Every structure is written in structure tokens, then in C-alpha cells.
Amino acid sequence: MNEIIEFFTAPYANATPLHIFLELFAVVLGIISVWFAKKEHILVFPTGIISTLLYVYICYQFALYGDAIINIYYTLMSLYGWLMWRKLVAGNKIQMTYSSKKDMTKALVIFSTTAVFVVLVYLYFDRFNQFTDYLDTFTTGIFFAAMWLMANKKIEHWLFWTVGNLISIPLYFTKGLGFSGIQFTIFLILAILGYQEWKKHLNNSQPTA
User: Fold this and answer.
1) Cα–Cα distance between 52 and 70 in angstroms, integer?
2) Does residue 89 register a pLDDT over 60?
3) Which residues pair with 97 in a beta bridge?
4) CA 67 → CA 58, 195, 208, distances in Å?
5) What is the pTM of this model?
6) Secondary structure of residue 38 in the 3-state scheme
């Protein structure tokens, strides 16, 4: 038990109480945000915006530039998604749907462009020298694509989150952000449940012959 406690607390030995509090607060808001996404509730965005802004600061302090970029993008896409979810289309709010080939092509372009951009950022800061940097490149790309799909209410965004969360769980523990590692574990569970809930909703909304 002591080893487990030390595993979580050791990376925070030199962290200030403020940094620890901010990470915990960001974790809680992040979990609440994903829960709202699962319920297709628009509060997913304001709670998510506060969480991601906090993570921009936290990741920059830990020199996790790829993660900082992710959270800047999350913040911007949350603002976009907030507008999209409130947008009226033929008198109705935007509806959840399956992705078309065009949607998936856009998601692939976002993934590829993001991955290249992250590589350039890490090279600029002379930080592309660890195995975790390669994983950062992949997860940043997949999370960027997932956020765009979510903003447009495409059910496949849950699949992207699931893959990204699976990689991020050990990745964040390795980076020394244990609380965030726990957060991504909860994110993974919520992503699986969210996909099932959205799929059930879509199947029930399909017209019957």
C-alpha cells in the first residue's frame, strides 16, 4: 500500500499546493464534462472549457507542450461545439448522427495535420527525444479528431476517445501526473458507456418500416 501511495505522491514532491489543487480541480471538471457529453447535455462545454484552460497552465508548467497544445485546441473546439450544439437547423438543434465518409475524411485530415504540427513543435523545443513524445504525437492527433467529431455530434467521437484514453492512462502515469492518469481511466469507462448510450439513442430514433 505504501508503494502505491508513494507512486502517486512522489511526482508531486516539488509541486506547490496550488498546482496540486489546480490539477485535482481540472480532473473533477473534466470528469463532469465527459459525463455531460454522455448525457448529450450542453454543459459539457462550459465545464470542459474551464478544465482545459487549467490544463494548459498545468501542462506548460510540466513542459508537456504537446498536451498544452491539445488543451488549447480543446478550449477552442469547446467554444465551437457550444455554438454548434445551440445552432438551429430547420428549427431543431443539431442532431447526433453517424459519420459519413466525408466526415471521416475530415477527421483523418485533422489527425494527420495535427500529428505533423506536434512533431514540429517538439522539434522546435528540442524535446522529440523520448518514447512518450511519439505517443503524444498520436494521442494529440486522435484527440483533435475526436473533439471535432464531438462538436458535430458524430457518434464515432466516442471510439476516438476510447483509443486515445487507452494510450493516455499509462502515458500520464509515466509523466508523473497520477491524478490525471486516474482521470483518463474514468474517461475510458465513460467513453465506452457514452458510445453505448448514444448508439442506443440512434437505434431507437431510426424510423421503422
Assistant:
1) 9
2) no
3) 154
4) 9, 24, 45
5) 0.81
6) helix
